[in-house]
Design goal:
Length: 265
């Protein structure tokens, strides 16, 4: 068997097997309770505990409590999902962990599908197997609020797959579909704002895009990047309304410790 041949024969089979491995390898998290930030963002967040108050929660910072704005996080997509999960399961952590494990399996499927557009199926299959069991995913899958990592990953990969399969020129239908996924992903976690750059790099990985080719590239793709830019602008303005700033000046929790380690600077 040559390396370019798939041991399974189809991308669907490869994706299914990788998803099954992801599910089995993370199934032990189903026994977990709420832990660490789960307690604050779910257990102590009264605004997500009824469907009546959930819409109002979408206009508030992600973290509840006194220092909500100072932490600089606004994630309405994640908040909405956690509120829906609470309406279904209440304080029972099992359902939340089932959602996390299922989303990890979904992300793994999308990893295989996206990579299969860029490389041989055999290589995409091996990459999917590694992704399924890689220990870097443990915190995102095992902690309930890790859904804020899993959900935007799934949405962004879905957008990448649509983009890779859309051909050389983006239509309004494809552009708006990807923009919808982009807005949801950005609303799930701030790092998803980088998706337009990822889409450009995917195009660059498949063909040379030099300075001379940029004008033609923009002509073919402006229906993609224009609505994404509008969506990003709207969400950034909304962040400003909710948090009082687009990006809060305070660094991540614990970053102040770097001040005591001059060698790092």
């Amino acid at each position: 068997m040559r390396w370019s041949e798939s041991p399974l024969g189809s991308v669907r089979s490869a994706a299914f097997l990788c998803a099954a491995l992801a599910t089995v390898s993370s199934a032990n998290s189903l026994r977990n309770d709420f832990a660490y930030d789960d307690v604050h963002i779910i257990g102590e967040n009264a605004s997500i505990k009824t469907l009546k108050t959930l819409p109002d929660a979408l206009t508030k910072p992600y973290w509840p409590g006194r220092f909500a704005k100072e932490l600089g996080l606004w994630r309405p997509t994640t908040t909405a999902l956690l509120g829906i999960e609470y309406a279904v399961a209440g304080e029972n952590p099992l359902f939340y962990h089932v959602v996390n494990v299922a989303t990890h399996a979904w992300v793994t499927v999308l990893v295989v599908l996206v990579l299969a557009e860029l490389m041989t199926l055999a290589a995409a299959f091996v990459a999917g197997l590694v992704f399924a069991v890689h220990p870097v995913h443990v915190e995102a899958v095992a902690n309930v609020i890790g859904i804020a990592e899993l959900l935007p990953a799934a949405l962004c990969l879905w957008a990448c797959l649509i983009h890779l399969r859309s051909g050389e020129r983006t239509s309004w239908r494809i552009g708006l579909a990807i923009t919808g996924l982009y807005a949801l992903a950005f609303g799930a976690k701030e790092s998803a704002v980088t998706l337009p750059a990822v889409l450009f790099l995917l195009d660059a990985a498949r063909r040379r895009i030099g300075v001379a080719e940029l004008r033609g590239y923009v002509v073919r793709r402006w229906r993609l990047y224009l609505p994404m830019a509008v969506a990003a602008g709207v969400l950034l303005l909304a962040r400003f309304e909710v948090l009082g700033s687009v990006a809060h000046p305070y660094g991540p929790l614990g970053a102040d410790l770097l001040d005591h380690v001059p060698r790092i600077w």
